[in-house]
Specification:
The strands form three sheets. The protein has a five-stranded antiparallel beta sheet with strand order 5-9-8-7-6. Helix 4 packs antiparallel against helix 5, helix 7 crosses helix 10 and helix 15 runs antiparallel to helix 18. The chain is built from 23 helices and eleven strands. The chain has 494 residues and is α+β, with helices and mostly antiparallel strands. A hairpin with a 4-residue loop joins strand 1 and strand 2. The protein is globular and about 70 Å long.
């Protein structure tokens, strides 16, 4: 897999003819004779090679006048892995668009967050994706609208505004243009199993991913480090509260063999797109496990670990600032002690929340709330207290931004400049909050122990040198190395 794969016609044709689901989301096939676009794994008989053309995004297909296939539903395929593995301007822009910035702040807001002019943003997105930010956001709105039409009994007018459309007419026109069906026809055709419970603001959906996916370390890590009141593991599912642009939310995520079941309770349905995007990011669902595992298998020491349990993902976060705070609370203490510290903060400073199912009670405290607390109330050593207060002050005033639009290199440098921030804290934030797939933890005790047992160099410098062959997937190598231990983070709770 590589950047601009849609330009490799021969390779794309082979993927379509073999119906290879690994390529879903990497490119889209537009059929010149039918004016329909599909995912590579579409179950219909492949068209003749001369009738295929390829695009890098669903938005580009729609902009060129193609309609979404009703069989393979290409708009619901996993997202491109590129946007979570790259740190350039286009990738950062795509992460922001997925987070709903264009709908909330327009293209000027997108450009402002990235530090470029709107013209530069539009030019780069058009050159690489065949569509500008407005078209990309429009495609995302259409996908959200389809989801709400098919899985909720909401009136169409409510769906239009919840999906981000400015008018019902625009909503109707867009749905017809993209899906060649009216909104009411989409609802009629929807499978009955897609409907949800009648709980106000709640809906159920399936989050697709590229196989294989090993849920053990992914959900095991989230469950083992869960902060009481904010997160819990219940009945085979991970649940947590969400702080969203328009209100509060609760998500329940259940691993299944071919998808992640997701149940969302939202205070405001306009937060749907953002909530889905953040949950996908937390579970690393847009990763390309085949490419990652193939590279790690090239190391004879890692190969048996990969073969034993392929498809490990990097457990990430729905809130980068929250994770940074929790990383500081976890410095040089056990997992249990870190949870205890975090739970105290939640009880004292978190925002209360009603959970219809019970169990969850608060949102994690915002940086502003934490910046206002009395430092003397923190039950931690003086030096770590200074680290904590400096971090939350900079998060609260905006001088430190850990959002999806951030430049990884620049953010690392800013973190390292904070008192009490050493390589381990910065790297764990880079891996799980910033989403850097190449973040590495050579000073981590679990990694050093695993390295020693496997016959790898165990000193940080020597291990880093050996790990150069694992780039750009060292964060995934960390998951395989951690999995050699019997720590609860490596296992689904019983």
């Amino acid at each position: 897999m590589q950047k601009g794969m849609h330009t490799d016609t021969e390779r794309c044709v082979r993927a379509v003819q073999s119906k290879d689901a690994r390529f879903d989301g990497w490119f889209f096939t537009a059929v010149l004779t039918t004016r329909i676009y599909c995912r590579p794994s579409c179950p219909v008989v492949p068209p003749k090679a001369e009738n295929m053309t390829f695009y890098p995004s669903a938005a580009a297909c729609q902009q060129a006048g193609f309609r979404a296939c009703k069989r393979c539903r290409p708009d619901t395929s996993p997202g491109s892995p590129e946007w979570n593995q790259r740190a350039d301007l286009v990738a950062r822009a795509m992460r922001l668009i997925a987070d709903g910035i264009v709908d909330r702040e327009g293209v000027p807001g997108l450009a402002s967050r990235l530090g470029y002019s709107t013209r530069q943003i539009e030019r780069q997105l058009l050159a690489e994706l065949g569509a500008g930010p407005l078209a990309l956001a429009r495609a995302q709105r259409a996908q959200t609208a389809r989801l709400l039409i098919e899985t909720t009994p909401l009136p169409m007018a409510e769906i239009a505004f919840a999906a981000g459309f400015s008018s019902i007419r625009t909503f109707n026109d867009t749905v017809r243009e993209v899906f060649a069906l009216s909104p009411s026809e989409l609802r009629t055709r929807a499978p009955k199993k897609g409907t949800t419970a009648s709980t106000p603001g709640a809906l159920t959906l399936r989050l697709p991913f590229r196989a294989p996916l090993n849920p053990d370390n992914l959900f095991g890590h989230l469950a083992a480090t869960a902060v009481p009141g904010v997160e819990e593991w219940r009945d085979g599912a991970y649940r947590r509260t969400l702080r969203l642009p328009y209100g509060q939310g609760i998500v329940t995520l259940t691993p299944n063999p071919d998808h992640i079941a997701c149940r969302l309770t939202l205070g405001d349905l306009r937060d749907l797109t953002v909530a889905i995007s953040r949950c996908r990011r937390m579970l690393d669902l847009d990763a390309d496990p085949v490419a990652i595992d193939d590279q790690l298998r090239m190391d004879p020491v890692l190969a048996p670990l990969v073969d034993k349990a392929p498809g490990r993902r990097v457990p990430r976060t729905v809130d980068e600032a929250e994770f940074a705070v929790r990383a500081v609370l976890g410095q040089q203490v056990s997992t249990a002690a870190a949870r205890t510290h975090a739970a105290r903060l939640v009880t004292a400073h978190g925002e209360p929340l009603d959970d219809p199912e019970g169990g969850l009670t608060h949102l994690f405290p915002s940086p502003q709330a934490l910046a206002a607390l009395d430092p003397d109330s923190l039950a931690m050593p003086r030096t770590r207290r200074a680290t904590f207060t400096t971090l939350v002050a900079q998060l609260a005033d905006g001088s430190l931004n850990l959002g999806v639009e951030g430049d990884w290199t620049e953010t690392r440098a800013r973190l390292l400049a904070l008192p009490g921030f050493g390589p381990w804290t910065v790297d764990v934030i880079a891996m799980r909050a910033l989403g850097d797939p190449d973040a590495f933890l050579p000073t981590d005790l679990g990694i050093r122990k695993a390295a020693q047992e496997l016959g790898l160099p165990s000193t940080p410098a020597a291990l880093t040198a050996r790990a150069a062959a694992w780039r750009p997937w060292r964060a995934y190598a960390v998951q395989y190395l951690w999995a050699t231990d019997s720590h609860p983070i490596n296992f689904l709770p019983v």
